[in-house]
Amino acid sequence: MKKFILSLAAIILLQLSCLAGPGELIKNAGTSKDYPNADYLVVLDKTTVDVQETGLSYNNIQKVYKVLTYEGATHLNHLTFDYDPLSAYIEIKEVTIYRKNGIVEKLGPENYYDYPAPAFMIYWGARQQMVNLGKLEPGDGIDVKYFKKGFTYALLYDENQPDDSKYIPPMRGQFYDIIEYWYSQPLLEKIYEVNVPNTKELHYKFFHGDVSIDKKVMKEKTMYRFSKKNMMPIERESGMVALSDVAPKLLLTTTAEWEDKSLWFYGVNEDFGSFESTSDIDRKVAEILKGAKDEMDSISRLNHWVADNIRYSGISMGEGEGYTLHKGDMTFTDRCGVCKDKAGMLITFLRAAGFESYPAMTMAGSRIEDIPADQFNHSVTIVKLHNGEYMILDPTWVPFVREEWSSLEQQQNYLMGVPEGADLMITPISPPENHPLIITGNTTITEDGTLEGSITVFAEGQSDASLRGMFTRNQKQYWNTALEDELRTISEDIQIIEMNYSDPYGHMESPMHISVKFKIPDYAIITDQEIIFTPIVASNIFKRAQAHLYTNTSVDERKYPFRDRCSRLVELKETIMLPTVTSALYLPIEDDIDGSAASFKGAYILENNQLQLSEEISIKKRLFEPEEWKNYKAVVNAQQKFADEKVILSR
User: Fold this and answer.
1) 13 is a domain residue
2) Do both 468 and 395 map to the same domain?
3) How far apart, in whole angstroms, are the C-alpha atoms of residue 394 and residue 306?
4) Domain shared by 331 and 399, yes or no
5) Are 528 and 604 part of one and the same domain?
6) Domain holding 250: CATH number?
């Protein structure tokens, strides 16, 4: 009997702990001694979702925080909530502060603010609501409850609202959500509960970890509950992939196949008439294509006209903004738009020229998981070639770039909006040879240590874009200064005798060429016995086009995948004429390196008072797995060794 009473008491205590209010949760959450590296705790993050037949969802959200440090108090003294009033609305229901001294304060509407959200380059009328919590102290806690509905940001559910139609997701009848199970601070418990009509099948997957899943079938709906406890912030690694690619997250959707999403994206823009041409557009297309040599020349001319002449600036068209591409006439008249509008303008141009062209969606900067939820942040263009193959174009990412599709987006998922429907696809690796940077030097070291001679630079693809940006991102009057500043990274004493470069605005005429004649006094150390110097071509000149040289190679291992800017091929060659020398006392050497991530070859040859340097570095792709770090690091370090360690010759 005694054992039964004790067991019953334990069950009751457990039930009470599960029903503990915010005050108790905050009190028992722990202190800075328990979490010495944290500024505050997310004690509870709970969302309850009620999905309607239309796909519209009503969300009740509760978040409980505990302040651990004064820095955390500063961070939490105001909370903001974003929404777009065209498709979303939010209501802050209740905000309570639990002071560490036991006082409980409820904040009223006078502490809530609604105002236009700060905007830069995209002006769609977004708004923010903010709660001003005032001064907080370590040990204080916050309980926030709010309601949202809609498909863009948060919305208010109010029975007095006459019509919920503008809050229904654009893919009517379908529901999706993406839930992050991570914070920058410790997260003690996260609960996501969704109630879905039994007429819909919910597809879901939890990535990068485990989650507790409960399912309960009711009369009209099925409840799914996903809960996880005690999640610590992910320790970021320099150069790692997007946090969403490695952190715990939950994806849910009622859309069964990517083909369904593809067909919807095709239909919504065709029905809207996004790609209808006008007489003005037809005349401009004919003007652009005058003298075009072939199919690819025509596509390139249209792509780069849109890239270079439609500036990136988002103006709202009202209803449908964010997922519908602006009509071609609007973008052509405004000469501006965001990625989807630039993509739509190009589609309109291509169709006016007789091509078959459609939009596509992608995710710049992170991976799209194989769950047909809306994991997109970027829109591009596809065109069908005469051989029946689709070619992908991106007018947003190729201003002053010689590519049609930016190779900064290689190994990136995308979904085409085509009449036959399409599955999720991925862009291929762009071979390093498409992005060469070739630096050649012919120099002489005189008896007084002066280095004089010339260097020439050739670049193509994204290497071209990196060098060209040195000019196009500056006003024309500063172009020479920009190049001079680059050369002065080698020596402040450099004397530039002559320099020439391709027209930075002529990116469609020819690749980038730079040639410089120069003199650097006292460049080499010369004694009676030795000559000591670093070849100028080996000294990491034009580093801006060699992103791998910015990599922190101090770590031995990586836990997460990492990335470079783009694949590339770097060829460094220099011939140095010398005063009389007898032998090499020290020449930097490295064994050849080759792997799945990168490769390196480097050598010096000393012969007849002439030193020849050659290096070849190949970065083979943009995204890498953790096990490829050893190879990548070795290549970067090998090139850096040739830059850091001086040549020592005996006289």
Assistant:
1) no
2) no
3) 10
4) yes
5) yes
6) 2.60.40.3140
Domain that holds residue 443: 433-650
Beta bridge partners of 435: none
- pLDDT of 495: 97
The pLDDT tens digits for 445-493 are 999 999 999 999 999 999 999 999 999 999 999 999 999 999 999 999 9
Q: Is there a domain that residue 588 lies in?
A: yes
Task: Using the 3D structure, point to which of 393, 428, 463 is the last residue of a domain.
Answer: 428
Q: How far is the C-alpha of 64 from the C-alpha of 60, rounded, in Å?
A: 14
Is 65 in the same domain as 174?
yes
Whether residue 138 sits in one domain with residue 278: no
Q: In this structure, what DSSP letter does residue 474 have?
A: S
Parallel, antiparallel or unpaired: strands 390-393 and 378-384: antiparallel
- With contact defined as beta carbons under 8 Å apart, do 59 and 147 qualify? yes
- Contact indicator for 307, 252 with CB cutoff of 8 Å: no
Calpha distance 306→194 (Å, rounded): 43
User: Do 562 and 594 have their domain in common?
Assistant: yes
Q: How far is CA 123 from CA 338, 453, 625, 627, in A?
A: 10, 52, 38, 43
Q: How confident is the model at residue 117 (pLDDT cuts 50, 70, 90)?
A: confident
| Same-domain pairing of 187 and 306 | no
Question: Would you state the torsion angle of the CA atoms of residues 168, 169, 170, 173, taken in this order, to the nearest 10 degrees?
Answer: -90
1 pLDDT higher than 80:
no
Residue 1 falls within a domain, yes or no? no
Amino acid at 107: L
DSSP H/E element including 362 = strand 356-362
C-alpha span between 611 and 578 (Å, rounded): 7
Q: Which residues are paired to 436 by β-bridges?
A: 569
The per-residue pLDDT for 317 is 58
Whole-number Å distance between alpha carbons of 569 and 598: 10
How high does pLDDT run on average in the chain? Answer: 92
Runs of H (alpha helix) within 310-460: 328-334, 339-352
Whether residue 455 lies inside any domain: the answer is yes
Q: If DSSP codes are grouped into helix, strand and coil, which group holds residue 259?
A: helix
Cβ atoms < 10 Å from Cβ of 384: 15
Number of independent structural domains in the chain: 3
* Rg, the chain, Cα only: 30
Check pLDDT > 90 for residue 441: yes
Kindly state whether residues 422 and 442 are assigned to the same domain. no
Q: Which of 385, 410, 428 is the last residue of a domain?
A: 428
Residue with tokens 């002071």: 99
Inter-residue contact 610 to 568 (CB < 8 Å): no
Give tens-digit pLDDT for 485-531.
Answer: 999 999 999 999 999 999 999 999 999 999 999 999 999 999 999 99
Closest CA to 194 of 216, 212, 209: 216
